[in-house]
Design a protein that fits this description.
By secondary structure, this protein is an alpha/beta fold. 35% of the residues lie in helices and 26% in strands. The chain is built from 13 helices and 16 strands. The strands form two sheets. Strands 1, 2, 3, 4, 5, 14, 15 and 16 form an eight-stranded mixed β-sheet that branches. It has an eight-stranded parallel β-sheet with strand order 6-7-8-9-10-11-12-13. The radius of gyration is 21 Å and the shape is globular.
Length: 379
Amino acid sequence: MMAGLTVTNARIVTRDDIVSGTVEVAGGRFSAVGEGSVGSGAALDFEGDYLLPGLVELHTDNLERQFTPRPGVEWPAQAAVLAHDSQLAAAGITTALDTVRIGGGDNARPKHLSGMADAVKAAMRWGVLRAEHFLHLRCEVSSPGLMERFRPFMDDPLVRLVSLMDHTPGQRQFVDLAKHREYYQGRYGLNDDEMDDYVKTKQQAQQQYSDRHRSMVVKALSGRNIALASHDDATVEHVEESVRDGVAIAEFPTTAEAAEAARRNGLAVLMGAPNLVLGGSHSGNASALDLAVSGLLDMLSSDYVPSSTLQGVFLLRDGIPDMTLPRAARVATANPARAVGLEDRGEIAEGKRADFIRVREVEGVAVVRSTWREGLRVI
């Protein structure tokens, strides 16, 4: 049930300012936001902590990691979903687009990824999830079985985002074949011969399927209210192809050149927060901080570390001259919410959903103390 709530003595991070004051919640939405405090007996006292909008996550691989915590290990489905959901809420994420990889299924990835969506839906029916969950379909266009796996999702109301990706060795994310070899051999224990066969097979599949499948996915999405992203664009030509296909989000562009081209063409640039936290890309690609300094960063996602998004927000505040916390927070709240049509959330403002988090800085670290979704505390 959606109960009324008053929070006072908070540093409220609105869209453009930080207000020392009070918020009121009724019916799961903010009914009042203003300066000044009320008696602590009638309200929840934040003791000067920040009150930020709940984070909106467009790309999390964390669910997949819960399903396969180690190579060859398959965790029970519902337990995996519940663990994933708890970690998101504890990281301040109140809305999540869980990534489901469509296509692929080689020895580096689980073969049952589409089954993750069914597990999420089952947990939703139980009514126990802390965050609100939607789906982000990651379409590996070089995969032979892509369209067979993709079509059943086309009428699924949980699908909010579809990304076009191609992880073929030698281009996009893995232009540097040595980096590709280091990643796959180090993580999955492939010997040199197995690695050579893997690369050859993937490159042959790309030549046969990538262009055709990309065109088919784009056509299938025509006229649907589903955002489209292009994954790992590396060149101006990649971005120009994305523009022709109606892409709205440049997801993890691998070069500054591609990010600049995306911005010129009106695409929103999404980068991974781990890149920001670690000071660069593990694949040797574009730095999220460098893009942010150049004004080319619109959104952050937690990618494979749920807690990285909030860390990234505060790093942006501290690492870029004249960057305010409200501006930094928008890359993880209002901007991603708007990008996928969730206009009802992502801001502390009257009428918006009361998804918010209590954050305290402790020795330079942003700590999520509590999380609320639609006015109800979930952590």
